[in-house]
């Protein structure tokens, strides 16, 4: 049976994994029609079969991540890396297999996720912070630092539906890094925003890792991944292709391209 189990960190010894992925499968249904009209035209032309197909994003994937590791999930488009990250975060459930996570998870899986468009940036800091497990007192304490890090103080009382994607990123990243997670997940967010802010994000991620947080990153920017990760896991069409040092993983992926 599929399961996502947010385990109690006290149940894990220091040398035990904080993330365990056991023989996980994830299948998506790709539909090729969205209207009755298209379906009728399909049938009237004598075509048979379903107007959908399945896509196996992950196929029997197993891995473990230990406390304090910095892991890059690498692969070409469609390899399953983002899907695996979403399973670890709890955004998705596996169709079969098991995902066990010990500790509090935070990070950026999708820019702006957890933000309400009709609320201001200020209100969304409190909303998103609460979603990430921060207490109101903690948010109040860190609010000025969160806003300062985001560099959008001028717009903090503007409804976020008027924000650009870059402004979303800045505020979402700022809240996430101040939520003090045990496991920090990042999916391609460094591809958005200007170069100085990207550098600032990388520096903050390094600080988190040096402070003992476990880091899991999905990115197609192999040079940036090498800067912040020590271990690399390569997925290929939903299968685990290799698991080694980040340099070995990057070389493997570059040779496969």
Summarize the structure in short.
By secondary structure, the protein is of the alpha/beta class. The chain contains 8 helices and 10 strands.
Keywords:
single chain; 257 residues; alpha/beta; Rossmann fold; six-stranded mixed beta sheet; four-stranded mixed beta sheet; 8 helices; 10 strands; 28% strand; disordered N terminus
Rg computed from alpha carbons, rounded to a whole number of angstroms: 20 Å
Strand order of the largest sheet: 6-7-8-4-9-10
* The CATH topology: Rossmann fold
Report the principal-axis shape: globular
Q: Give the mean pLDDT.
A: 85
Q: How much of the sequence is in beta strands?
A: 25-35%
Q: What count of structural domains? A: 1
Give the CATH class: Alpha Beta
Overall SS class = alpha/beta
Described by strand count, sense and barrel closure, the largest sheet is: 6 strands, mixed
Helix count?
A: 8
Give the tally of β-strands: 10
CATH superfamily label: P-loop containing nucleotide triphosphate hydrolases
Unreliable stretches (pLDDT < 50, length at least 5) are 1-12
